[in-house]
Design goal:
This protein is an alpha/beta fold and 343 residues long. The chain contains 14 helices and 7 strands. It is extended and about 80 Å long.
Amino acid sequence: MAKTNTAPKPKRNSQAKQPEQSEPQPIPEEPEVPVPITQSDTQPVGDVVALPTTDSVFTASIIHLSHAELFPFKNHPFQLRDDEDMKALVASVKERGIDQPAIVRPRDDGGYELIAGHRRQYAAAMAGYSTIPCIIRNLSDEEAVLAMTESNFNQRSEIVASERAKALKMQLDAIKRQGSRNGILNKDELGTRSNEIIAERNRMSSKNVQRYIALNNLVPELMAYVDDKKMKFTAAVDLSYIKPKNQMYIAIAIDAQQSAPSGAQAQRMRELDQKDILNADVIDGIFMEEKKEDIRVILNSSELSRYFKPEQSPREMKEQILMLLDEWKERQSPELKAPAMEK
């Protein structure tokens, strides 16, 4: 290319796939063809600009960076776990190296911030590699958030509720900031449109997006119960609307009773909290009430086959079991036969 007095414009690879203009595309961890992207490549989504966009050209060449040069994404919502998936990734890196480069961006304080590739970097360190291949991109804060969250949504096999809640909230805030800069002045319109975009990007309903984002209002003690699958998602959403002080009382009650509230109990506590009449004593009283839920005892087919013929229907099995239980009850002492007195 002949030199001129102006900065040379980046060449566009004619074979690269151009982004569709109708709707935003998922963000790949690594571009199919390393093409510099300029401001002219922005994709409008309604009134909000979606990825990939940047005010400056990013570097698409692959370079190797040491672990000391790499820093985790600020407020990264996803955890690094030494689980079976990580062990498999470490084994793969030892055998074949890193197939897919990490995505990074320069830091003002030096070094590079990881956008996509936290697990790969950790696995490379565990496998004994001193450097990892990286692609450097000059992304804005909003673009970096969207690329980081979507990369993790696409790559991770397990995402707990707290991680998804934090990531969706980060996406929502980034989309709102983009929309605000693009001239949306009405706050309600901005919030509604942002929710719709987040739902579309993650193939979720707007209602589910709102529910996950609401979980960010849970105190850590309650969020831990959701992540450990010891509390139902819908119950947790109701509890997230309760004042933090009362949430702490609920966490204490769960620990004391070794049982999470049912959906009906959580909804009732939310309603009482909105009326400012929920307190520790009321919460304890609700937990002491019998839950309005069915008690289920599961018997698998192999267990039932020891006592019933193959041609017997589940209804016939149930009737036979109840009849035998009635006969067993009749043979018990009078104290055991009498129903428990209500307190």
